[in-house]
Amino acid sequence: MDLFVAALVTGVGLGSMYGLLALGFYVTYAVSSTVNFAQGSTMMLGAVMGFTFGVTLGLPWIVAILLALVACVVWGVVVEAIGVRPFARRGSDLWLMATVALGLILENVVLFTFGKDPRGMPQSALTAEAFSVGGLRVSLLQVTIPVVGLAIAFALHVLTRHTRSGKSMLAIVQNPDAARLMGIDVRAAIVGAYAVSGLFAGIAGLLIAPLFTVSSSMGTLFGIKAFAVAILGGIGNPWGVVLAGLIYGSAESLITATFGSTYTQILTFGLVIVALALRPDGLFGRAGVKKV
Amino acid sequence: MSERTYAARASSPPALYAAIAALTLGGGVASYFANGYQQYVIAMVAITAIVGVGLNVLLGLAGQLSLGHVGFYAIGAYACAILTTRYGWSFWIVLPLAGIAAAIAGALLAAPALRVRGPYLAMVTIAFGFVIEQSAAEMKSLTGGWNGIMNVPRPTFAGLAMDEFGIGVLALVLLAALLVLFARLRGGTWGLAMRATRDAEVASQSIGLALVTIRTVAFVISAFLAGIAGALFAILGNFVSPESFPFFQSITFLLVVLVGGAGTVLGPVAGAIVVVLLPEVLSFLAEYRLLFFGVLLLIVLWLVPEGIVGAIGRRLRAADARTPQSDENRVAAFLATDTSGSAPGSRDGLVVDGLAIAFGGTQAVNDVSLVAKPGEVTSIIGPNGAGKTTLLNLIGGFYRADRGSVVLDGVVLPKGTTYRIARAGIARTFQTTQLFARMTVLENVLIALRRGGLGGVREAVGQGADADATALGCALLAFAGYRGSIHRPAGELPHVDRRLVEIARALATRPRVLLLDEPAAGLGEGDTKRLGALLQRIAKRGVAVVIIEHDMNLVMGISDHIVALDAGRRLVAGTPADVRANDDVRAAYLGEGELAIARSAARSESSEIVLAVDGVDAGYGPLPVLSQIRLDVKRGELVALLGANGAGKSTLMRAIAGLHRPVRGRVLLLGREIALLPAHRIVRDGLTLVPEGRQVFSELSVVDNILMGALALDRRAAESEVERLIARFPILDPLRDRRAGLLSGGEQQMLAIARGLAARPKIVLLDEPSLGLAPAIVESLYRVLEQLRSEGTTILLVDQMARLALSIADRAYVIQSGRVVQQGSAEDVRNDAALEKAYLG
Prior knowledge:
heterodimer, A: mainly alpha, 2 domains, 11 helices, 4% strand, globular, B: alpha/beta, 6-stranded mixed β-sheet, 35 helices, 51% helix, 15% strand
């Protein structure tokens, strides 16, 4: 039973991070039907920047975090400008490959500057075991992570369903020209979405860094799983995305606890295929209006 | 040049075969003189190109993106390694088996993969790739786990063990054969079918193509080739392990196709050369290789998006302007051919009995029955939201009826399977034309001629389009009235031609019933008359023609039988005279016939100019569309902008509103220069455009759509605007929370206009507001416009229905070929001969 709860706690924490990263996919997709496919590398950038500013340069943590997030936001804007806009503008789907190329470039640049060896973040008050959950000791960080994830999902949900500016964001992807005629600055909205997406990735990276080691390759698999989560959540639904993240993370964790880590990836990815076969619009998605 | 030779050359020109031979020879020769390592690289180029050819079928032809092809590659490699090392089988037997193993996996993956679209498909394929890689790592007893399988034996050929050179030659020869097969496939029926499903899914089914089968075949072919390549890889390196098959390799394969040019024959070769050779060439950069790779890829994607071969091909392709030859007899014989599938001796035509369907609580079609006899034109009329298009969709199989039946010549049609119904002899056209945009006009018709029967393997890689089919296709195009080039990409056609080609395509399936959904929408008077004549000619050939239309002149002029619908039910059915005299129909739909709008007295001349357009030129690239346009709109005026289709009216509206940039000349809104401003800024200055074609936000509700129009107002003001507008357009009241995409065409049009008015603009531009609206609705719409005008709203109106527009306008401009040819008071313009000429010319 203890094992089960421990696995669940880990799973929820990991899952909310998948969910947070996946919300980055959601935000850009909801506005422009494009994503930064290499979102994982942006997350890595956040972690690496956080480590560099906070540990290597020894800046105060608040400053380090802020600078790391700024770096991620800037990178998000850069990705949109050179990796997405040139292709989306001509109606091409090549932004998918272009963002992959950018992710590759970022990873390698970090590899040469940061070095090959993974670094561990120092322990701090955040990571010390402070609480008791179901008989298990958890740290403040492990509690913070899901809270942050859910809070952001909630904010997005309220924004897009209940405020006019939120709805106008959704309107953009449905009909960009009509949106322009409503006075919506479509270009600014898309750039903004990518900036926000970068911000989410940065936050995820900073929250994860103390739990794992920081290295240039930490983002790839994470990003792919986050993409799976976004898809499963029905990429048009922020709650669905976060929920899917929690489910995915918990599933991963529980499978590892039960069967050992060898079959985790096979089973989780296998389940993704099955889930999409049964529910082609994602677990929580809704089929778009189809008219002929 | 004879038809046959032309057809053959078009799909596989001799130059292409020469190029393939040259590349193969070149690769072989280079390998002969190279050292061992270089021979290895050359072999890898060929092997990677083979995967590329397969992926080219899936992505380049069928348009399906796979990010998990490394999985098939791995299956082939492991199958080869396991069967040769553990069971000692000969490589020559194992090679095809490796392909088959991968192909089986491809067929299995296709089942879930084809249920999903876009990024969902990407995810399924990614997951597949990971599952295979991880399975290879975990199934230690079978695959050796992370240690892999070593000492995969090299096969022998003529007694000698093959070395890198031998394997390279083998790979090159296979590659050459596959390139030839790909060229034949692309130009043949299966290639056309795949491209059709890529360009327009629904339309491809409406001509009888079995979507799932075609895509599964594409998947299986691409998996098979990846498997073969994997086996070659296994014997080349003598070693397979999971490390050779990471996720990144799938990206590499994709890049091979994209960099080379998706859909081109030689693309995968160029792509493989770039992707495999370049890192070798750059090996001096050692660790920075990947970085350079990424940068290079980005540059290629930016500068040559259609791929290297695609870019070259575009430059070399000569423009071919052959127009179709007319051959009425051939068409007549073709359409009259008796097809199997009808009950013997029965030519009852289309008998619809008690069809019904409900969507989310609304009964869209309620117990509708009708009969459409062969040789007759049957028209379905009714107000917007009456269920006309839904009825057509039910007959065509796009929707599955809850109740009722559709019987064609005595045979009951299956429910809800579009392609089977198409094959049974029902063809259709769509409200917005659904041509296969990236295929030529001729290809659009050619694939329809097959009526879904694509033939077997021999046909798939046989000769390209045969001369007979080409001649028949041309005859059909000519019959439909198409006078343009048959080799023009369908996506580039102007509006009228799109409709004609779509009709020709529908006829190519040799239908017994032809369903047309608002075929005259967007056509001027002259074109509409020609369309009417065409439809009658088609009916004379024995086809049962069923059309939905709002143009009453057309309907009354050509119909033998009319069915009137309202609110999902049938009101009346009978001859045009019967229906015209029917009171219910009159009330619900026809209106008074003559627009009985009391035009308010001419208002005192206001001299303030709200909008001034001065010397405006605009075009699309080098193509000029507008020339030195001068017009102005004074406060409180309603100015009409008239002209035939293609005259440039919509372009002018978009140019004024800021959607079309750049424009030369000046556009002044209340004295402010707006010609350089983007659309979203112009709106804030008080100019709203209600664009052509009902551009609503389909996923937002009706109320939210209107709120979008009022973003500039604060929340309370916006909400009261919503109420005001719903009061002005009461048809929207019961639809408040409905998703706008589910509304009928006319309802959407009303919504678009309401949305445009929400911001209380200083001037409203309306582009074709009456398009697709029933006559009674048009009347009420114009009543609203007249009301707005009398309240002092400034309006610039574009409408096909010139007389209607003139009846409420103060002044009018007539545009022809991008120039203003006439202007003056509405009275003057109405009486002027130039107007007739501009429309009917």
